[in-house]
């Protein structure tokens, strides 16, 4: 980190003079605003942030930030970010990606970033559609979804980003939604504090090509019943009166109502985001309407060695043992002879 | 003991070791090479091994070979044909006979020439009864049985015993060329002494057994002496191209005091660079074995963006995958170094064989008008200098540099007079001029046209870059038609101006005349040897071997224009000649090509040159 003490920064420090060119009403505006609100809370000098993106609507994000930013190529942002973070661990690195960028063309880099646990934060804008290429289905589009490239309906089963990420060994997974700026900002701040790869799935509405994709979850009338806000150490309760909860029945989750069939609060699961075993986190990440509420908040946040910490430890151990420390020594090491 | 003939003194000699992939022929060849280097010979090596790790034992497909030429005279190639072949089985003999000079010596393990082994190698009858062998001096040594005999009291199992028969062959070779065994003995102790002292003892015993056998047996009429070469005084070591490439990059890192980030995905024949660099984490080298070729280049560009030396390497198939990312580094104007250790292609092609067929890809292989600096070393040790130069050019001109090595350079080796770090040139990172207004990431150095390398973490200069077209100066996204044209020309001109910052094209021989031979890359040794041998025969011919390919050195047109004919020799269908025709269409060129996965031979080049004289 830079030597000088960070001045108190405000949201304005994280914006710039460039015209934001997303469609009017796009969920991306709210995400940008929430990030710009979260950044000053981190106490990190502005010059130490680097936002790295791939291609797609979401990937334009760095151009609208007042920080350092690099808009790279389709799907590869996790690999660029890995190079940035490993060569300068003092930087606070953010990857901005979409469901096409990270789940289709960049699927390989996405899973390997999580597996390596490089200390970067990933904002995954999931709108279940290709926006910038104008409306083809994406790997997270629901089966049967009619799009420009699937006039008869998408034939494929979708990826659930959380399921894929937990399968790939992510140490941090949170889910939030573009209509809830408070939750977004809170999660962005907490994810930045996690050591290792922090993956944040943001359910983001595309007003043009996939409007209302998440309206069942976000509708004021149904939100209380369709959203489960997870807090570490708290019981998994939801509903207007917190009358509903999640119970483990055998190897499956089920929705139960307190007071019905002898259910009391003690039957309800208490969220443990820090449990290294990912089984329950996976079940929570997979919950879907209409049978379950959508889980929001930090689903998994586990402390594990980061890739960078491993590399630093290796470097120190190697330095203690090494006989060669400079190029002149290396050139003259081993078998040499004089003429 | 019969009286032996006196020692025969030779200027140079070519020795080839051939056996099963598992017979340890690369090791045997390397040990013989080391001993010759320590005896003061100049030399060059050429390993020739199959792509399969262990192809079926005893088959022609599974034969692994190692050729070395040693001399008291300057040696630039591993030699066209061998004076001595060591063949460990019928398959080795069958596949290597064409590489032995008529009248040359063939030492073979007679125990291995059973009728079953002969059949496996594809011989119809007894290979040793083959009339073709009458042109050679055959030395049938019962290597397997003598190895067994030497170790009969060792208590080792038969498999371990048979694994040391290569040491018997090495012992014979050491006697045959009057080499000292000290280095090999020390090396055996270093390798096995601690872990398995009984194996160390066995290896040494068999080595001596081979040496004494050769000394005693009458089948070897005399031994040879290749006196030391007249090399410039200094400290020398043996170096292969891949190791020299790794070290050249590390040398650039040390000069700059930055980190070296090497993103790579394993691929033949580039992997040894990754293996080598991964040993030096404590010297500020970061290596990432990426999930694929694209991640390898992308992570390296990420490191460049963060202010460090970002390097990726691969062979042709991998470089093809990296094309889009290299284009981004051109657009973002970042100092990426791309190492391409070329191999036979297209597609998977000939993974372990050499070719020079990625030149088009290096110069043109990206979408749009996307220029890159292209350089190529000519010898294994030049890989050090050119890797250093590649990093220097990338950083001082802020644009990607593609470094074209090949399988022949990567695995070939030669003695190398060691440089001192203090003698290597400085690498300058230009600082942007101080100014009051906002920082402009695409402000350029007026002479070089390079932008400034301002990296995240620098206060007050926060900016965004990326793959969308940049507005000149501000770097903001711009779709302005005239801006785009100006930026395309600027990027092209920036690379073109590199011509003023690289060494002038040198020439071996007269700077004017009838015929100029033009080459690039690993063909240097062969072309140089051919040209020098023709001088001895009284012919006037010159050689221009091009290290800086895009752009060419500033004097190249004048040089090429000073000859009546230009003969371009390359291991592809004619890529350099195409590049020359495109950049200097006023001249005629003659193209000479070989695309067999093998280097040119000196005699092929001499014959082709003579057709033009």
Give an overview of the whole structure.
The complex is a heterodimer of chains A (339) and B (613). Chain A has 339 residues and is α/β, with parallel strands linked by helices. Chain A folds into two domains: 11-234 and 271-311, Rossmann fold; 235-270, no CATH class. Helices cover 29% and strands 19% of the residues of chain A. Chain A has helices spanning 28-38, 77-87, 99-105, 107-116, 161-167, 181-193, 215-218, 220-226, 279-286, 307-321, 327-331; strands spanning 49-53, 68-71, 92-98, 121-126, 172-177, 198-203, 227-230, 237-238, 244-249, 252-257, 294-301, 336-338. In chain A, strands 2-1-3-4-6-5-11-7 form an eight-stranded mixed beta sheet, sandwiched between helices. Chain A has a three-stranded antiparallel beta sheet with strand order 8-9-10. Chain A is globular and about 90 Å long. Chain B is an alpha/beta fold. Chain B folds into three domains: 8-225, Pyruvate-ferredoxin Oxidoreductase, domain 3; 237-423, 3-Layer(aba) Sandwich (Rossmann fold), CATH 3.40.50; 513-612, Rossmann fold. In chain B, 36% of the residues lie in helices and 20% in strands. Chain B has a seven-stranded mixed beta sheet with strand order 11-10-12-13-15-14-20, with helices on both faces. Chain B has a six-stranded mixed beta sheet with strand order 3-4-2-5-6-7, with helices on both faces. In chain B, strand 12 (309-314), helix 12 (316-332) and strand 13 (337-342) form a beta-alpha-beta unit. In chain B, helix 4 crosses helix 8, helix 11 (293-305) runs parallel beside helix 12 (316-332) and helix 17 (524-536) packs across helix 20 (602-612). The longest helix of chain B has 20 residues, at 197-216. Chain B starts with 7 loop residues before the first strand and ends with a helix. In chain B, 54% of the residues are buried. At the A-B interface, strand 1, strand 2, helix 2, helix 4 and helix 10 of A face helix 1, strand 9, helix 9, helix 11 and helix 12 of B.
């Amino acid at each position: 980190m830079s030597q000088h003490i960070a001045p108190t920064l405000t949201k304005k420090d994280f914006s710039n003079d460039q015209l934001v060119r997303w469609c009017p009403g796009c969920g991306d505006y709210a995400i940008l605003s929430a990030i710009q609100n979260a950044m000053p809370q981190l106490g990190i000098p502005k010059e130490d942030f680097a936002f790295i993106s791939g291609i797609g609507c979401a990937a334009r994000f760095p151009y609208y930030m007042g920080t350092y930013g690099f808009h790279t190529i389709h799907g590869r942002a996790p690999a660029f970010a890995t190079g940035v973070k490993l060569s300068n661990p003092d930087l606070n690195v953010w990857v901005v990606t979409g469901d096409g960028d990270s789940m289709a063309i960049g699927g390989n880099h996405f899973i390997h970033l999580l597996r390596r646990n490089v200390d970067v934060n990933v904002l995954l804008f999931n709108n279940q559609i290709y926006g910038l290429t104008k409306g083809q289905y994406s790997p997270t589009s629901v089966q049967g979804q009619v799009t420009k490239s699937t006039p008869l309906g998408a034939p494929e089963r979708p990826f659930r980003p959380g399921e894929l990420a937990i399968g790939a060994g992510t140490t941090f997974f949170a889910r939030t939604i573009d209509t809830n700026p408070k939750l977004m900002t809170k999660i962005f701040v907490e994810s930045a504090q996690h050591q290792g790869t922090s993956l944040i799935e943001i359910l983001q509405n595309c007003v043009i090509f996939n409007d209302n994709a998440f309206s069942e979850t976000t509708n004021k009338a149904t939100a209380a019943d369709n959203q489960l806000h997870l807090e570490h150490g708290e019981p998994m309760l939801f509903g207007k009166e917190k009358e509903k909860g999640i119970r483990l029945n055998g190897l499956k989750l089920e929705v139960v109502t307190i007071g019905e069939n002898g259910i009391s609060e003690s039957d309800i699961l208490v969220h443990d985001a820090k449990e290294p075993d990912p089984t329950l986190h996976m079940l929570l990440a997979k919950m879907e309407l209409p049978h379950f509420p959508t889980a929001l908040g930090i689903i998994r946040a586990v402390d594990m060695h980061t890739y960078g910490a491993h590399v630093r430890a290796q470097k120190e151990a190697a330095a203690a043992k090494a006989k060669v420390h400079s190029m002149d020594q290396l050139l003259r090491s081993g078998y040499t002879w004089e003429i | 003991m019969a009286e032996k003939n006196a020692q025969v003194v030779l200027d140079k000699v070519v020795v080839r070791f051939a056996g099963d992939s598992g017979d340890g022929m690369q090791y045997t060849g390397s040990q013989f090479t080391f001993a010759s280097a320590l005896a003061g010979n100049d030399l060059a090596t050429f390993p020739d091994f199959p792509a399969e790790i262990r192809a079926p034992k005893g088959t022609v497909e599974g034969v692994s070979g190692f050729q070395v030429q040693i001399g008291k005279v300057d040696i630039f190639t591993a030699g066209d044909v061998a004076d001595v072949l060591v063949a460990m089985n019928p398959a080795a003999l069958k596949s290597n006979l064409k590489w032995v000079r008529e009248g040359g010596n063939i030492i073979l393990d007679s125990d291995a020439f059973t009728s079953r082994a002969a059949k496996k190698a594809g011989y119809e009858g007894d290979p040793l009864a083959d009339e073709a062998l009458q042109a050679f001096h055959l030395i049938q040594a019962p290597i397997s049985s003598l190895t067994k005999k030497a170790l009969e009291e060792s208590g080792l199992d038969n498999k371990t015993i048979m694994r040391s028969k290569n040491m018997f062959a090495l012992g014979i070779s050491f006697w045959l060329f009057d080499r000292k065994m000290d280095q090999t003995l020390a090396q055996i102790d270093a390798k096995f002494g601690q872990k398995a002292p009984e194996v160390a003892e066995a290896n040494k015993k068999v080595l001596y057994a081979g040496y004494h056998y050769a000394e005693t047996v009458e089948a070897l009429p005399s031994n040879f002496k290749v006196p030391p070469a007249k090399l410039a005084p200094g400290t020398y070591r043996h170096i292969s191209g891949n190791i020299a490439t790794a070290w050249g990059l590390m040398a650039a890192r040390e000069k700059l005091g930055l980190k070296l980030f090497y993103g790579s995905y394993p691929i033949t024949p580039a992997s040894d660079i990754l293996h080598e660099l991964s040993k030096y984490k404590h010297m500020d080298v970061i290596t990432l074995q990426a999930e694929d070729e694209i991640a390898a280049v992308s992570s390296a560009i990420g490191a460049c963006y963060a202010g460090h030396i970002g390097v990726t390497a691969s062979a042709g198939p991998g470089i093809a995958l990296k094309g889009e990312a290299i284009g981004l580094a051109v657009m973002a104007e970042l100092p990426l170094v791309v190492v391409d250790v070329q191999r036979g292609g297209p597609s998977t092609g000939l993974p372990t064989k050499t070719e020079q067929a990625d030149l088009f890809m290096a110069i043109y292989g990206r979408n749009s008008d996307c220029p890159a600096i292209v350089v190529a070393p000519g010898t294994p040790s030049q890989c050090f200098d050119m890797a250093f130069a590649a990093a220097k050019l990338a950083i001082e001109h802020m644009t990607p540099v593609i470094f074209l090595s090949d399988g022949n350079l990567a695995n070939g080796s030669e003695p190398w007079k060691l440089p001192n770090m203090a003698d290597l040139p400085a690498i300058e990172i230009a600082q942007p001029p101080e100014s009051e207004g906002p920082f402009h990431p695409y402000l350029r150095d007026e002479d070089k046209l390079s932008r400034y390398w301002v990296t995240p973490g620098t206060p007050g200069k926060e900016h965004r870059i990326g793959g969308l077209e940049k507005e000149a100066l501000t770097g903001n996204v711009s779709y302005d038609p005239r801006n785009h044209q100006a930026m395309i020309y600027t990027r092209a001109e920036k690379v073109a101006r590199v011509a003023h910052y690289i060494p002038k094209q040198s020439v071996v021989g007269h700077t004017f005349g009838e015929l100029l031979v033009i080459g690039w890359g690993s063909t240097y040794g062969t072309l140089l040897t051919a040209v020098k041998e023709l001088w001895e025969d009284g012919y006037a011919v010159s050689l221009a071997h091009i290290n800086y390919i895009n752009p060419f050195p500033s004097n190249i047109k004048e040089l090429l224009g000073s000859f009546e004919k230009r003969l371009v020799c390359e291991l592809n269908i004619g890529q350099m000649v195409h590049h020359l025709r495109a950049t200097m269409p006023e001249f005629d060129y003659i193209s000479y090509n070989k695309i067999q996965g093998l280097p040119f031979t000196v005699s092929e080049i001499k014959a082709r040159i003579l057709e033009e004289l």
